[in-house]
Each structure stands twice: as structure tokens, then as C-alpha cells.
Amino acid sequence: MIRMVMAGRYPPDTEHIEGGPFYNMYLQVKTLAERDDVELHVVSRSKMVEGNTCFERDGVQFHFLGEPRRRVIPRQLTMISRVSRVMADIAPEVVVTHDPTETLAAVRAGLPTVYI
Prior knowledge:
This protein is α/β, with parallel strands linked by helices and about 120 residues long. Helices cover about 35% and strands about 30% of the residues. Strands 3-4-2-1-5-6 form a 6-stranded mixed sheet, sandwiched between helices.
């Protein structure tokens, strides 16, 4: 079994998906969740979540990281180290990213990374 992280913009509410990047990741996660040879983790930043929230749904581990509402430095820069720590703790064999912030976080953690 391969341990994989899908990292990017995943919709916190799958009944109301905002647009293309959210829908794309939703469909990829849904498809990979059907496999029995993948331990799948989703790492996603969200302004709609406070703090860090982790839960399991349909055999997938979700890790939502709340983005700060107020900022002096752009969120993308402040979130890299937080996302990197979560990915390193999961210790996947591969990270598939959908956003430059998550890509930089995975590279910083020293993880094999595929950027889509």
C-alpha cells in the first residue's frame, strides 16, 4: 500500500463546491478513495476553518489548516511551514500538489512531490 498526500484547495463543504480547483481536487480524491492500495491523506488550507482540524471520511484522512483572517504577510507565505510540518508528520511516499504553496511545503519537508 502506498501512502499518498493530495495537497491543495479541497472544499470544506462538498455540497457547495466553489469552482474549478476545488472541484478538480474533489474528483481526484473521490477516485483515489475507491482504491484499496492507497492510504490517502488530504492536506488543505482554508479560511473557513479555525485552527487545525483532522478527521476521516470514506477511508480518507483529511487535514484542514485554518488560514489567519488578519495578515501582514501574505497567507501563502505564512502557511508554508505549517503545511510542511503536517506533511512531514504524515510521512507519505509521494505528495501530489495542486498549488504552489503546498508544492513549496512538500519540497521543504524533503518529500517526493508531483505538482499538477
